[in-house]
Every structure is written in structure tokens, then in C-alpha cells.
Amino acid sequence: MITHTSYAVEPWCLRETELNLDVLPQSESMFALSNGHVGWRGNLDEGEPHGLPGSYLNGVHELRPLPYAEAGYGYPESGQTVINVTNGKVIRLLVDDEPFDLRYGRLRFHERLLDLRAGVLHRTCEWTSPAGRTIRVRSTRLVSFPQRAVAGIAYEVEPLDAKIRVVVQSELVTNEQLPHLAGDPRVAAALESPLLPEEDYAEGTRLRLIHVTKESDLRVAAAADHTVHGPKGIQTSSESSPDVSRLTITSVLEPGQALRLEKLVSYGWSAVRSLPAVRDQVDAALAGAVSTGWSGLVDQQREYLDDFWTRADVEVDGDAEIQQAVRFALFHVLQAGARAERRAIPAKGLTGSGYDGHSFWDTETFVLPLLTYTSPESVAEALRWRQSTLPAARDRARQLGQKGAAFPWRTIDGSECSAYWPAGTAAFHVNADVSDAAVRYVSCTGDEEFERETAVELLVETARLWRSLGHHDHRGRFHIDGVTGPDEYSAIGDDNVYTNLMAQSNLRAAANVSERHPDVAATLGVDDEETAAWRDAADAMSIPFNDTLGVHEQSSGFTGHQVWDFAGTRPDQYPLMLHFPYFDLYRKQVVKQADLVLAMFLRSDAFDEEQKARNFAYYEALTVRDSSLSACCQAVIAAEVGHLRLAYDYLGEAALMDLKDLENNTRDGLHMASLAGTWVALVAGFGGMRHRNGTLDFAPKLPEKLSRLAFRVSVLRRRLCVEITDSVATYTLDQGAPIEIRHYGEAFTVTDKGPVTRQVPPVAARPEPQQPPGRRPGHRH
Ligand code: BGC
């Protein structure tokens, strides 16, 4: 856990005021910079010490065999792992005779600051070498949002007490040695030297390396150019070898003099382009960056982020930690998705190699909602990526004996990489999650071109899967048997309510878009009979309910299972999956993460108020939150049913998942779903926002500790600002034509004539629900 006090709580930045090597790997994730295409972990400029060196290009992966003790039909045979590509961050420094290495000498001052408004990482460091020379090093690093192939560093070194000779080595390095990552199976398997050299080049201040992956056959190139400023007499030379291309700068500096280096780096990769074409690609990107120049890149970055914050900022008064956390979250989610452009958004973004760099349903269900209301173009791109993987998803459905498309549980390039089918392939709900994200995007933007070109195909192929996976019983009820819902401590259940309700929406949405765009649907072979069959299945969908207990069954028969022995489970036995066999988890009532509770959020319309409260209390007592995807969902429903303190505690857990390293794995990369969940907990939880069938509803209420919450959402080319205090909600149209919204069910129109205010009704008290012993979230009061 990151407990030391060197992380200051500030509204617009993450500042680390001293270097603590114990949490270096975590800090590398938190200080990671990315634009969704290129990702640089927050490694120190000089490369070492490091927790995990990381430079990533979205989509660049290596294949590896997936071994099975016992073979089985339909098991994926090949896995994919994100690889550490050429590192363009490295700038080594020699001070007189000593390498600048913070493990030696005396570190007098060290500060790193991630500026969330400027989109840059600053570092300032004062260090006395073992030989007694004191220097100051300052660097600023960025991964450009507007120029997606480009990153850069401005680096400055100056003596503080006496004349020194410095040698600066600015490098591109491929196949860096990686630390051995053992232990938790979720941690990415470290791949040794995954890149084969194709070309290396160094001339003047320019460097370039081109490599190709061994098995996946992806060509990866990086190029760099430099500008050097300093006193007279600076000497430079460059050299290259297959895995290292280096510019060396030597200078003698008097106190008061500085050597400054501006390093611009460009990246490119391709599965199809030739070596000359990829070489030209990185050279061209670099030429673009050079013509903008370092300060131009800094200005562009600021402009891009000013625009983002105008659309997306969330203000929280009364809890400075949450204020910082939600901006940190918004920034990192933007970084993960902004320029991913027809590539997946991985569960860790490009901040680390955790989960092998795979994408899951996390993207569509957690990350895309935030982006839909703040940066919708990136959502269209993410869903177009899904569409581009339809050939693999259709093949997978056929292999499984089903119609339509079966999207993978985890993947980089679109093919299934899950070696554990009960919580992988059987989690078919990913199909409905994709469809839900597409429907949300269209209703939020009205993007008809996307609907015709992308949504129809996604909805039709996912609906086809549901129709073939499920069946009508003798009474006509439609069942989807033998699937795994979001709760991975139950598997192969019949009629999982989350899955069935989401599939129901999927089937209806497919019928609706097919009727709206019959010409597009016809090209996919959809006819009236098929849409009627989808509607029949949706209307007859079975939703198991236990009349005696008055609660929904998570899956058919769930409430009849033995309850997990929570009292006999020690705190150190969580997460349960690392201490108990799945067979035992599967046959007991114990819930890893929000499942029915998530259904009550995403299909709010399918439950009445009383059912929501009863279900929440029932499942709360069984939910252990062994997944970071849970707390934010629990926050939303806790707020809806009136447990505001509890909702606030869950918000705290989602928001601080990485800042406090609550799951002890922030070193592997940030939890994008939980970061996005911070926004969800605030906007859908305390803002009570629901957006279904074109209606935008709000039911705001604040926990005692928060005196004000304000957020912005963009819907149908309008920007709406919602501001909530304990007794009043104010709705202001910041931009666009009048819009009709609802406040606690009362409809009214917000126009540019001025804000509309409404009273926030008092919350009815209910008995506090209980969590399993020891699993209550930490109190924030
Ligand atoms: C969760 C899944 C999630 C995955 C990646 C697992 O622990 O149970 O729901 O998709 O992590 O975040």
C-alpha cells in the first residue's frame, strides 16, 4: 500500500515529494504517460533503478503457446502478450566519473509532478555524487495527444557547487532486460528479447531502430531527433548497434551554466507495411514533431487538455482526496482511450503489462461510459475496433456451435486468449456489453453514420449469438443456460439475471436498428422472421426471482446454495481465488464482484425501488469485492437505495484503488475500470444519472461529507453542467440547443436562458446492509 506521505493531495496534479524505491513500480504506473497509441511508464530518465521498464505501442504483442494439462475442443491454442517495445525515454548521465544513479551518492531533493492540466510529467532532482559533486537535473516529459506517434522529453542538467564534466547519452533501446515477474498469475509473463533487429541508424542528432517480433510478425520502429543547448564547446557523437542507438553529448559546465536537451521521439508499427514504408512512417512523424518543436508540442498538449477539461471536469467540494482522485482518473482514462483509434483499450491502458495487456469487458462497461459523455469520438473508434474483430468473433461462434459472433473474453487482436473457459468463453455477456456500449454511444451522439456502418452489424451479430445460445422452454420462456455472469465466483449458471437482461436489451436493440435501417440489415441477411424471433426471445426472457426471499436470483437456483463460511475465512485468505478451489467457490453463495447489482444499474428499468433495496441488501452480505470492478457499481446502487454513507465509502475505494494501491498490484499497471468507476460512482451514483431510451434522468443526492458536486456531460451536441449541493440541484446548459431532462421523474427543458434549479428531496432511511465480516469498505467519515 502506498502509505508514505510523499504523495501530496492537490486538485490538479499528482506530486511525489521524495523518491521511495519501495514504491517505485507503483509510481511508474501512476506517472505513466500515454495517448492510447504510445505509452511510456513513469520510469526514471536514466533508466535505472526501475520496477518495470515499459514502453508500449497499442496492439504490439507477441504470441505464446497456451499450454493445457488436458487438451479440449475449442481451447484457444495461442495466447498474446503485450511487449515492451523500444524505449525512447532513456537519457543516461555521467557526472565527472560517476553515473547518475540514485542508489548511490546522496539524493538531496527529488520531486515528480504529473500535471493533469498540462499533460506533462515534471521531475526535479538534486543529487550529490559519491565524489561530492552536486547537480540539479530537471526533465519534462510528454506523450502527445494531438500527434499520436510522438513523445518527447526536455532534459536539463546543471552543476550546483563546482565545475563538472557531463556526458549525456540519449538512447533508443530495444529488448531491455526485464525483471522476472513471478507470483500472481495475472501478472504478465515477461517475454525475453521479443524483437529481432532489422535496421539501426544514427547520424548527427538522429537515431532510428527497426525491429520485428518473432512470432506475431509485427514491424516496430522508433526514431528520435535532438536539439542541444549549452555553453560553447559541446561535443556530440552518435552510434548505433542492433538494439541501441545513441547520441552522446559532452560538455564542461560551470555553476550557473546548464546543458539542455530536447529529445523528440516517434513510433510506428505495422503488420503489413514493408521496412521502407515503416521507416518512412516514423521519419515523417518525427519531421512533423520537429517542425512543431518542443514548446509547440507543450502548447498543443495544453490546448487539447483545456478542451477536454471544459467538457469533462468534475468538481468535488468537501473531500480533497476524491477531488484529486477523480481528475487523476479522468486523465488516465483519457490517456487510455484518446488516440487508441481502432485498437483495443486494455484493462491497464498502456501503463503496465498486467493482464498481458489484454482488453476485457472492462472497456465497454466501465471505460466507454465515461468517454461517451466526455470524448465520444474515442468511443466510436473503440467500437469500430470491435467491429474490425468480427471475423474472429464469427469464427469463434461457429467453433462453439453458435450463430452470430462470440466476442473474446480477453484479447489484444480480437481472438480469444482466455485459457480458462468457465470464467472466459462462458462469460458471453461481453457480447451484450459491446452492444450496450454501441447503443449508449448512438443515443448520446445521434451519430447516424456510425449506427448504419457499425452499430447495426455489432447488434445483429451479437443478437444472433443470444438467439442460438438460448432456447424457449415448453411454456415459451426463453432461457440462457450454462453461462458465467460478471461474478467470477459462480460459473456456468442458468439464467444469470445480468446476462439475460443485457441480452434482452441486445435483442431488442438489434431488432430496432434493423427496422430503422432495413437496407443495411438486409446486407447482413436479416429478415422479418429473424427480428421477430429476437423480439420473442426478449419478451419471453426468464428472470429468476425467489418469492419467499423477495429477491432476484443471481442465476437460477443461486439462493438455494450453501452460504460461504465467511466467519471461518481469515482476512489473509482474500482474494478467495488465490486460497480456495474454484469448485468450492462455484457451489456456494459468495460473490466476487457486482453482478445482480450491476444489472440493477445498467437495467435500472427492470427493477422496482423495493426490489432494488432488497436485492442490494441480500447481495451485499455475500459480496467480497475481490475484483476492482465491484466498488463503483456498489456505490451506484447504494446511493440509489439511500445508503449514502456506504456509497461514499465505495466511491473512496474505487477512487483510491491505485493512488493507495488497494489491491497491491498497481505496479503492473493502473486499473482503468476502477478509475472510470470513480466517475461512474459520482455521476451515476451521487448524480443519479441514468440515460436509457433517449431520456436523461437525474436523481441527485450527496453524502454528508460532500458539500458540492459539479459535473459536465455532453449529449446530442449539448453540454450540460449539473451542480449539486445538499438541498439544491442546478442544471445549466453550457452549450447547444435546449434539452429536455428529468429530475426525480419531473421533466423540464434546460435552455440557454439560464440555469434551472430543483430541490433535492430528503433520503428515506433504511437499515444499513451488512457485508461479509471484514469486507466492509474503509470508512471515509
Ligand atoms: C474480473 C473481471 C475483469 C478482469 C479484468 C477480473 O478480476 O473479475 O470482471 O474483467 O479482472 O479487469
From TrEMBL:
Binding site for substrate: W361, D362, K592, Q593
Domain Glycoside hydrolase family 65 central catalytic as annotated: residue spans: 327-679
Domain of life: Bacteria
Annotated ranges, domain Glycoside hydrolase family 65 C-terminal: 689-750
Gene3D superfamilies xref list: 1.50.10.10, Glycoside hydrolase, family 65, N-terminal domain, Maltose phosphorylase, domain 3
Biological process terms in GO annotation: carbohydrate metabolic process
Ranges where the Glycoside hydrolase family 65 N-terminal domain occurs: 16-270
A Pfam family per the record: Glyco_hydro_65C
Catalytic residue list: E488
Keyword presence, Hydrolase: yes
Keyword Hydrolase attached: yes
GO molecular function, one term: glycosyltransferase activity
InterPro entries assigned to the protein according to its UniProt record, in alphabetical order: 6-hairpin_glycosidase_sf, 6hp_glycosidase-like_sf, Gal_mutarotase_sf_dom, GH65_N, Glyco_hydro_65_C, Glyco_hydro_65_M, Glyco_hydro_65_N, Malt_Pase/Glycosyl_Hdrlase
Similarity comment: family membership: Belongs to the glycosyl hydrolase 65 family.
Protein name: Glycosyl hydrolase
Source species: Wenjunlia tyrosinilytica
